[in-house]
Each structure stands twice: as structure tokens, then as C-alpha cells.
Amino acid sequence: MPAKIRYDAGAIALHWLIALAIAVQLTMGFSMTALRPGSFLQFQLYQAHKSVGMTILALSVLRLGWRLMHVPPPMPAAMPIWEQRLARINHAVLYILMLGMPLSGWAVVSASPLNIPTVLYDTVPLPHLPILSTLSNKKAVEPVLEGIHEAGAWILIALLVGHIAAAWRHHVLLRDDVLIRMLPRRFSNRL
Predict the structure, then answer these.
(1) Nearest-angstrom CA–CA distance, 93 and 158
(2) Is-contact 24 53, C-beta < 8 A?
(3) DSSP H helical segments within 35-137, as ranges?
(4) Cα(75)–Cα(177) distance, rounded to whole angstroms?
(5) What angle do CA 134, 128, 39 make, to 5 degrees?
(6) Helix crossing, 9-34 with 40-69: angle to 10°?
(7) What is the pLDDT at residue 70?
(8) 30, exposed or middle or buried, with CB in 10 Å at 0-12, 13-18, 19+?
(9) Residue 126: in which H helix or E strand, if any?
(10) What values do phi and psi take at 120, rounded to 5?
(11) Topology of 3-188 in CATH?
């Protein structure tokens, strides 16, 4: 496949690193909330969830910067305008959520009356957000922020399902290069 219709290696690497981190993050998020409150395993998962969340935030900032400095390949000429617009909207909202979900999680932790410190990967302390950590009515604010974070997770899941379904539709039904151009070369050559 000619290089001009593929994403570059940096975009591909960041895409798949973020995708993997989000899959791990969603799995941890649902697992930790299903565990017995206050258990050691739940505490460990919450700490890991915060660490992966901040990693997603950092990778997403890098990905957005990369995207702004590198022109992506054009959408297929045969793709209808409505579908191109829908793809752009989906990508824009995914970027918003990739940045917003870690920030909303950080806000939840900062507004928690428990005031548990965050130490990323058991190494780097992450301070609480100043405004939220000093609130006098944390018990009223924390559930609102938790609701926003949870709603964001469900919206993210819906968008990811649509994103994956669209990629497979392009690959299996339409037989175009939309999926292949985001795959590393060693995988795209096999499809």
C-alpha cells in the first residue's frame, strides 16, 4: 500500500497504545467497582486505574499534538459526505473523552472526602486538584463528579463500539483501506 494513504508510524503507535490502555482502563474500572468496598484488591485496582488514566491523558496529549503536526491520509473518495462528517465527529468526541475522562477521574479523586493520595505506579505523587481538594462540601460534590465520570465511560464505550464496527464494515463489507491504513505494516500485509 502506498505510504501516502497510510497513517505514519507515530500516529499508528499512539493509536494502538491508547486503544490498549483504554481497554485495560475500562476493564479495571468495571472490576474495581464490583469488588467489596474497602478491600485491598479494590484499593490496588483504584490506584492502578488512576495510574493508567494519567498515562492515557499523557498519550492523548501526545496523540493530539502529533495529529496537529502531521496531516492524516484523506478519507476514501468513495466515502459519502455524511459518513465523513460522522467519522470526524466520532473522532473529535473520542479526543474529548480521551482527555476528559482522566481529568474527570482526577476531579473525583480530588473531591473525595477520603482524601486518599494518588501515587502513580507507586512512584510519582499526583497532587489533588487545588479547588476541589479544599471544598468544604466534598460529600455533595463527589457523587456528581462520579456520575459525570461514569456517564463519560458509557459514552466512550458507545463511541468505541461504533468506531470498531465502522472499521470492520470498511474492511469486510466495503473492502477499502480504512482499517489497513491504521494497522502496523506487518499486520496490514496479512489482511
Answers:
(1) 11
(2) no
(3) 40-69, 81-111, 130-133
(4) 9
(5) 105
(6) 160
(7) 93
(8) exposed
(9) strand 124-126
(10) -65, 125
(11) Fumarate Reductase Cytochrome B subunit (1.20.950)
Domain boundaries, the chain: 3-188
Give the pTM: 0.91
How far CA 2 is from CA of 6, 12, 60, 166, in Å, comes to: 7, 15, 27, 22
Nearest to 126 by CA among 61, 56, 51: 51
Q: Which of 108, 112, 106, 107 is nearest to 58 (CA)?
A: 106
Locate cell 485496582: which residue?
45
Comparing C-alpha atoms, which of 150, 107, 119, 153 is closest to residue 47?
A: 119
Residue 72 CA to its chain's centroid (Å):
19
* Chain centre distance of CA 20: 9
pLDDT digits (tens, 9 = 90+) for 57-89: 999 999 999 999 998 898 888 899 999 999 999
Q: Which residue has the cell 502506498?
A: 2
Taking only the tens place, the pLDDT of each residue in 113-159 is 998 999 999 999 999 999 998 899 999 999 999 999 999 999 999 99
